[in-house]
Design a protein that fits this description.
By secondary structure, the chain is an alpha/beta fold. It has a single domain, classed as Rossmann fold (3-Layer(aba) Sandwich). Helices cover about 35% and strands about 25% of the residues. It contains 7 helices and 7 strands; from the N terminus they run αααβαβαββαβαββ. It has helices at about 10-15, 25-45, 50-60, 80-85, 100-105, 150-155, 175-190, and strands spanning about 70, 90-95, 110-115, 130-135, 155-165, 190-205, 220-230. Strands 3-2-1-4-5-7-6 form a 7-stranded mixed sheet, sandwiched between helices. Helix 4 links the parallel strand 1 and strand 2 (about 90-95). The N and C termini lie far apart (about 60 Å).
Length: about 240
């Protein structure tokens, strides 16, 4: 049986995140989840951090060690771990949950960590500050609105990269359609260009029968990579 192999407590915690509760309640929930979070996502076989870091590294021109990367909604630091393995060393993180930031701090992978509720607070960075910005897992129904895209672009250098993910499971399809409309509108406006939109069948284990996209016990997801315009021309 799909997802049914997962402990009920994990299923409940995942469902609670996507329920679309009020912001203060959601942040308290994340604070409480922080200590169990990595154990839960391991049980879910959550592949987004690995897939996102691999995609960003593929698009990113070497060298990576000096590149400034902002990990938005960084959680406990799963994305930082994957980026670090791929040679990124200058990592800054923001998250709306103090409990999550505490876990992220304990990894020792971030040079800076700040509390910031995406969609409510501006990102704590000047314009055109980062070589890359990642938002892995936070763009979804009941989480962060697609209206945050211009703020992500603001802090990205021209020619810099943005790596975003969302899920393709049934309850997130309306959100995904809104997100893709917003992504395309920004591309038509010349704000960025799409380098990659990679649909991934095995994104994480489904927590209910209905959510399993192919009836295989998993939900699917997508990794997007965009490059902010204007893209610098290579020196002749």
């Amino acid at each position: 049986g799909t997802g049914m192999g997962l402990p009920a407590a994990i299923r409940d915690r995942v469902a609670a995140v996507h329920r679309g509760s009020a912001l203060p309640e959601r942040l308290r929930f994340y604070d409480g989840w922080a200590a169990l979070y990595e154990q839960d996502v391991a049980a879910l076989e959550y592949r987004a951090p690995h897939l996102s870091a691999a995609s960003l590294a593929f698009a990113f021109p070497a060298p990576r060690a000096e590149a400034r990367v902002l990990d938005v909604a960084c959680g406990t630091g799963l994305v930082a771990r994957e980026l670090h393995r791929r040679g990124f060393r200058c990592l800054h993180g923001v998250d709306g949950s103090a409990g999550m930031l505490e876990q992220a701090r304990s990894t020792g992978l971030y040079q800076e960590l700040q509390l910031c509720v995406l969609g409510r607070d501006p990102l704590p960075a000047p314009a055109e500050h980062y070589d890359a910005v990642t938002v892995v897992g936070a763009l979804g129904e009941g989480q962060v609105s697609s209206t945050v895209l211009p703020e992500l672009l603001r802090v990205t250098k021209p020619g810099g990269f943005l790596c975003l993910t969302t899920r393709s499971n049934p309850s997130n399809l309306r959100y995904k359609a809104e997100l893709e409309a917003a992504l395309e509108q920004l591309e038509r406006n010349g704000a960025w260009q799409k380098l990659l939109a990679q649909e991934v069948e095995y994104w994480e284990r489904a927590t209910t029968e209905e959510e399993s996209t192919q009836g295989n016990g998993y939900i699917s997801g997508v990794v997007y990579i965009y490059q902010k315009c204007p893209v610098p021309h290579l020196e002749e």
